[in-house]
Amino acid sequence: MSVMKIGSGEPFEEVYGYSRAVRVENHVFVAGTTARAADLEGNAYVQARSALAIVASALSEIGAQMGDVVRTVTYVVDLADLDHVARAHAKVFGAALPAATLVQVSGLVPSTARVEIEVTAVISSQTGVDPAKSAP
């Protein structure tokens, strides 16, 4: 069985002991991802887009693309952010239509994060829909 693991270089990965993404054969799992740096000062839409950009980078590094994503799990601190997060999700995944779950939680790390997103992807011999090309 082929296993590949990558990190993003963020210090918390070493402290907590996890990989940003793990690929097992054609399955890819991207760990919960929040916005970084200045994007953490933005609203939930800005944070979700930032997190999804980090996810896209991890997928690319491990040999997948956003069109391969079959499932997302999104954690929000405030359900009032649902519309912002849903708009970001739809802009990125609109044509791919992955199975999606959204859960409200009491807090995230770092504490300024309003949204965290994890994804599961399956790389097929046929490339998936490229949501970037079909985004409105």
Annotate the secondary structure layout.
Layout: E1 3-6, H1 11-16, E2 21-24, E3 27-33, H2 44-62, E4 69-76, H3 82-93, E5 99-104, E6 115-122, H4 131-134
Verbal overview:
There is one protein chain. The protein is built from four helices and six strands, in the order E-H-E-E-H-E-H-E-E-H. It has a six-stranded mixed beta sheet with strand order 1-2-3-6-4-5, covered by helices on one side. The protein has one domain: 2-Layer Sandwich (60s Ribosomal Protein L30, Chain: A), CATH 3.30.1330. Helices cover 30% and strands 27% of the residues. It has 136 residues and is α+β, with helices and mostly antiparallel strands. 32% of the residues are buried. The chain is globular, with a radius of gyration of 14 Å. Strand 4 (69-76), helix 3 (82-93) and strand 5 (99-104) form a beta-alpha-beta unit.
Which key phrases capture this entry?
136 residues; alpha+beta; 60s Ribosomal Protein L30, Chain: A; 6 strands; 27% strand; globular
